[in-house]
Amino acid sequence: EAGVAQSPRYKIIEKRQSVAFWCNPISGHATLYWYQQILGQGPKLLIQFQNNGVVDDSQLPKDRFSAERLKGVDSTLKIQPAKLEDSAVYLCASSSYPLIAGTGDREQFFGPGTRLTVL
Amino acid sequence: KNEVEQSPQNLTAQEGEFITINCSYSVGISALHWLQQHPGGGIVSLFMLSSGKKKHGRLIATINIQEKHSSLHITASHPRDSAVYICAVPPEGGSEKLVFGKGTKLTVNP
Known about the structure:
Order of helices and strands of chain B: EEEEEEEEEEE
Largest sheet of chain B: 6 strands, mixed
Strand content of chain B: over 45%
Order of helices and strands of chain A: EEEEEEEEEEE
Shape of chain B: globular
Structural class of chain B: mainly beta
Number of strands of chain A: 11
Oligomer: heterodimer
């Protein structure tokens, strides 16, 4: 079974530039998560999709971050404009939860991450 | 909000040693996750457990629901075990979302 794919793996940009990350979840997984992990900290949830709808984006800095999952499969996360404090690893994860009536495995499967450096 | 505390923050061991990493949380949960993150950044799910003990190769995870505590053990540690080990639990009130600990950085020297 193919895992969660992310690209690019690394990105270096200057502050005020724009950047986009792409994620392709495991086939059939309804739920997709984007996390931000700053060095030395645990991942922080930015946004959670269930199919193509947003379940939780309460910690997404909406003035500069946006994300979409238009067809309920792959997703993009964009930062515009980037700030120095956005330097982090951006992780995408997916899970099969929920399938029908709350069934499905709550285990999350993570992609390799995109390491962003903002100079 | 579920608070997750991991200890130690950093751990250095010699190859072959038995390793224990601890995780405590503040609110009752349905399941706890142990994750492994290598220097490249990608995260691998090691265990998801709701009670008792699980074993996979040299890795053993235990959980005590009453004490709100879990441990991850590595037997016969090897340099390739060097990674950050992260404990994650659902937030207060349940749900499939996760609250992550800050991680324990393990270095195993040959």
